[in-house]
Amino acid sequence: MEDKFKDFYDTLKENLAAYNGEYASFIDEGPNLFKLLCDVLDQNVTRELRLDVCAAIAYYVLPMDVIPEQIYGAYGYIDDIFMSVYALQRVADEYGFEFLQDLWELETNIEDVMNECYEKSIEVLEENDIKAILTYTGLE
User: Fold this and answer.
1) 42 part of a folded domain
2) Domains in the chain: how many in total?
3) Engineered SS bond to 121: which of 33, 61, 82, 134, CB 3.0-4.6 Å?
4) How far apart are CA 99 and CA 107, in angstroms?
5) What whole-number distance in Å separates Cα of residue 34 and Cα of residue 48?
6) Is residue 74 part of a domain?
């Protein structure tokens, strides 16, 4: 019998399933935002936005990013979520939130989710962290 490999989305969901900490309300959106980023790549978006989205996806898998998951656990996804929302906001600026909502598989409003995730992540991240994230990914 062959072992089945989980895709990264399933791994993210599993990693965060048991987290009930202070930031759980928006950290739980991490896997959903990751999936949305991947779904955007299946669309006909501009080259520039495709690069932004790829940078956000890649940021999830970096072992030692600004707040590494290996050290901080679920808390370490806060910078990944910030990066996701940053890239997705660029997509929304170009194509509108309806474009993202059509790809969003949940019943929640993607604009509300993105706003909450952005506000909560910048409450935690310092200005230097934000600058480091955007510099590291080449988006600033």
Assistant:
1) yes
2) 1
3) 82
4) 15
5) 18
6) yes
- Per-residue pLDDT at 2: 64
Q: 């600026």: which residue's tokens?
A: 93
Each residue's pLDDT tens digit, 82-139: 999 999 999 999 999 999 999 999 999 999 999 999 999 999 999 999 999 999 999 8
Q: Which residues contact 83 (CB under 8 A, 6 or more apart)?
A: 55, 56, 59, 60, 133, 137
Full residue range of the structural domain in which residue 59 is found: 23-136
